[in-house]
Specification:
The chain has about 425 residues and is mainly α. About 50% of the residues lie in helices and about 10% in strands. The chain contains 18 helices and 11 strands. The strands form 4 sheets. A 3-stranded antiparallel β-sheet has the order 1-3-2. Strands 4-6-5 form a 3-stranded antiparallel β-sheet. Strands 7-9-8 form a 3-stranded antiparallel β-sheet. A hairpin with a 2-residue loop joins strand 2 and strand 3. Helix 2 packs across helix 18. The radius of gyration is 25 Å and the shape is globular. This is PORR domain-containing protein.
Length: about 425
């Protein structure tokens, strides 16, 4: 028989606190007014993320060839529905699908492999940047060391290669060392070998030094947000506290500690490729970075600095100042390569839509259906949405405006 939990008991109080905490988090995360442009920035590379994961899966396969049947099983981990074959055929510029022994296989196209090689070459060139980025991460942590498994949670956000432990750490023995103080495999950590004062400058301090002023946060909110501006100016009026300074001596709940925490999250996001990260992933570093239990509540107190979204049911925090509308202002070299990947996807989808439209048109003509009105309307208006969905002309692929329009259609729709 199920035991009853009496009001006032310790079990009741604990259960009530858990329910209250969950409710307060859900309520507070939904309380931020949505910004359409930043929501668009979050959804723009959704399809790129999925295709990048498929690309990585294929690269790891023997001879870099994967059976479509096997990829279908991987679709669950990619949170995709539908048939893998249909998805792959939508991007003929990225994937080459062929039939062999009554089974479909997939490999990357030559153009796609060229981008893969370009990305690999960039990884080698960026190794010093990765080393500095990792060092800054360790310098902000409480004990100047971080668990490897936890770093792996953010490695893609930071642009680190999958093998950064083998590729980067051993090359910089004066900066890093691998330690394991408990002996458990899951306890392996990267520890800072020496403090580099040249790296102990945050993005905010660098901008202030360049502009010859005191370091402070910037606010990107409409002038109509009067109360938010007042709260921001009050918060910004106190001295900036660098995230590379120790939090020892700062009182929990004080404005000084909040100021350091906001600066620390700002710096963490500044180190990422897209200037954003999952709040859930940041929560994994609560003890290492001395983050509050209700990090989301703290972030929502500063809407001029951070933007919190629940796009794709993933709570994400984004740096407002890093974006001009929906466009990232300062783009990392890896972001530029990824944008080339996005253009290749767009071109393939354009080709797929055009071929699909022509096939459907031929079928309807064979059935004797009259399409004069539709064709006439297309010729007169040049409707962009009709061209986007059905492919337009072949020459449009080389037109910059045409490519930009299809790029928007591809990424603005989000999902799938």
């Amino acid at each position: 028989m199920m035991s009853r939990i009496c009001p006032g008991s310790s079990k009741f109080n604990k259960l009530f606190e858990q329910i209250s905490l969950r409710y307060s988090r859900n309520f507070s995360l939904w309380s931020m007014k949505k910004d359409p442009e930043l929501e668009s920035a979050l959804s723009r590379n959704r399809r790129w993320i999925v295709n990048n994961q498929i690309k990585n899966i294929i690269i790891r396969c023997p001879d870099q060839v994967a059976s479509v049947r096997w990829l279908q099983k991987k679709f669950k981990t990619l949170q995709l529905q539908g048939k893998a074959l249909n998805w792959l055929k939508k991007y003929p510029c990225c994937y080459q699908v062929y039939l062999e022994n009554d089974e479909y296989y997939c490999r990357l196209t030559k153009r796609m492999m060229f981008l893969v090689e370009e990305e690999e070459a960039l990884k080698e060139m960026q190794e010093p940047v990765f080393a500095d980025r990792l060092a800054k991460l360790l310098m902000m942590s409480r004990n100047h060391r971080l668990n490897v498994q936890k770093i792996n949670e953010l490695k893609r956000n930071l642009g680190f290669p999958d093998d950064y432990i083998l590729r980067i750490v051993p090359k910089y023995p004066d900066m890093f060392r691998i330690v394991n103080y408990t002996g458990r495999r899951s306890s392996m950590e990267v520890e800072l070998a020496s403090w580099n004062p040249n790296l102990a400058f945050s993005a905010i301090e660098k901008i202030a030094q360049r502009e010859g002023r005191a370091p402070c946060f910037s606010c990107k909110l409409p002038s109509s947000w009067v109360k938010s501006w007042e709260r921001f100016e009050d918060f910004n009026s106190t001295p900036y506290i660098s995230p590379y300074t120790s939090s020892n001596g700062l009182v929990e709940g004080s404005q000084e500690l909040d100021k350091r925490t906001v600066g620390l999250v700002h710096e963490l996001l500044s180190l990422t490729l897209w200037r954003r990260a999952s709040i859930f992933k940041l929560d994994h570093f609560r003890s290492e970075f001395c983050l509050p239990d209700k990090l989301n509540v703290l972030l929502l107190k500063h809407p001029g600095i951070f933007y919190v979204s629940n796009r794709y049911q993933i709570y994400t925090v984004l740096l407002r100042e890093a974006y001009n509308g929906s466009e990232l202002i300062d783009k990392d070299p890896f972001v530029l390569v990824k944008e080339k990947f996005g253009e290749l996807m767009q071109e393939g989808l354009h080709e797929y839509n055009r071929r699909h439209y022509l096939l459907n048109l031929e079928k309807r003509r064979k059935k004797g259906e009259v399409l004069l009105r539709t064709d006439k309307k297309m010729n007169q208006t040049g409707d962009s949405s009709e061209q986007d969905n059905q492919g337009g002309d072949l020459g449009g692929i080389l037109d910059p405006e045409e490519r930009r329009r299809f790029y928007n259609v591809l990424f603005e729709r989000g999902g799938s």
